[in-house]
Design brief:
alpha/beta; 7-stranded mixed beta sheet; 19 helices; globular; 8-stranded mixed beta sheet; 536 residues
Length: 536
Amino acid sequence: MRRIQSNIDTQSVTFRTYEAFNRKLSGELAAHHRKARFERPERDIARLRQQKKLLVRERIDLLLDHGAPFLELSTLAANMAYGGTVPGAGVVSGVGIVNGREVLVMANDSSIKGGAWYPLTTKKMVRTTDIAIENHLPMVHLVDAAGAFLPMQSELFPDRHHSAGRLFRNQCVLSAMGVRQVALVLGHSTAGGAYVPTLCDYSVMVRKTGGVFLGGPPLVKAATGEDVSADELGGADVHCTISGTADYAVDSEQEGIALIREIVGTFEKPVKAAVDRREPEEPFYDPEELYGIIPNDVKKQFDIREVIARIVDGSRFHEFKPDYGPTVVCGFAFIYGWKVGIIGNNGVLFSDSAHKCTQFMQICNRDRVPMVFLQNITGFMVGKDYEHGGITKDGAKMLMVQANLDVPKLTIMTNGSFGAGNYAMCGRAYDARFLFSWPNSQISVMGMEQAAKTLAQIRLKALERQGKTMSEEEVRNIYSGITQDYLEKSSAYYSTSEMWDDGVIDPADTRKVLGISLSVALNREFHETPHGVLRI
């Protein structure tokens, strides 16, 4: 493969301007991550220390192999919800290495409302178990939860996709698939939460602090009048010697985590799906140069090849149809030695762009090549000439093939992601195995300015029909209000708060994140798949 010839002048004013802007965003992202991970009220930390409990990240540090990478998922989930009082949605999840095995860790953070489940908590837990299902990834559950946050129970109980019930359903599916799960009960696992350890292959409980019961002592008292302590009702010794609900009782969290590591060490290591593989090679160009490549305004364009050059092995790239459909770049490269097909945007999608992508995806489907989508897309081209030329049906072909791919799909939101272009480029609704955002990225049904002008015009027309008019200042106020709301709700931080991605990452870490994601995705075999009817 040829090495991409970079045209970036790292000494230029533009590069330095962009670099300063993006390093500032990177610093802000790191601060957001630190706050979500570590800042807790002192009283909550003191409460856990008094109970002789470790903090959630101390538990994870003991669980994971020393020095091994940990790809945390959705660190900033719920960061703009619930008044910012439930950082990370109250649960930590991510891909790590335990005793040499890739596992998916899901751990309740009992320093937040006692580990209570909010609607976005269950959404995050369901997404975590979805990842385990999609990638045949063993799970370690670190359980310490107060159960559902009752004032919001209606939002987390009955829904198909984001409910506690869906979490338990996913655990059942994992078990039937033969994907192993092990739980360590470090605190109370109450009501529906009692099913989390019970649905695992192996369940370990810590004496005195661990408890599993469908109804805790207050509910038992209210329902039956029976006075019983938590330990008598569903403690470790009860469930390991009487009910058989758990398998092992331990005297401390440290002992329990050591036992979990031992159990995971008995798991068979998976055979990775066979794809084209070669010796890994670092990029020729420094990934930190991405800071100076990404513009300081979402409306400014950049060459996606410059991004590719800083994430792929040796900065080598075999471009497909380089002279056709120039607003999209397709081609083959290697990431940490694994062959991938890459589709990246260099502008709006035209019919020729869609044709090129559709053909390229069919080749990747046939040749068993995982795909990486680098999104910076304003959408498909609109207008009379383009509609007459078939832009809608050409976009539909791209959607049809992409939606039916079984090869692993990974998506990075590098800048803007607007309209149906989000769908065609494997947005959240199209089953990317992993999807991550850069802090500068924006996502919405259309660009902010277009949306604000459209909505302002609709309001003006409605007033005209009523025989009313507005002053220029009133029009500006309407426009300003719409743009402000759009700016907030299209931001990467809002997107990740609502879990429309699997996390916001530093652009310079993109290669590492893709490498871990690829390794996980190849735990499951995949096959060439048929696509639906392509409208000719």
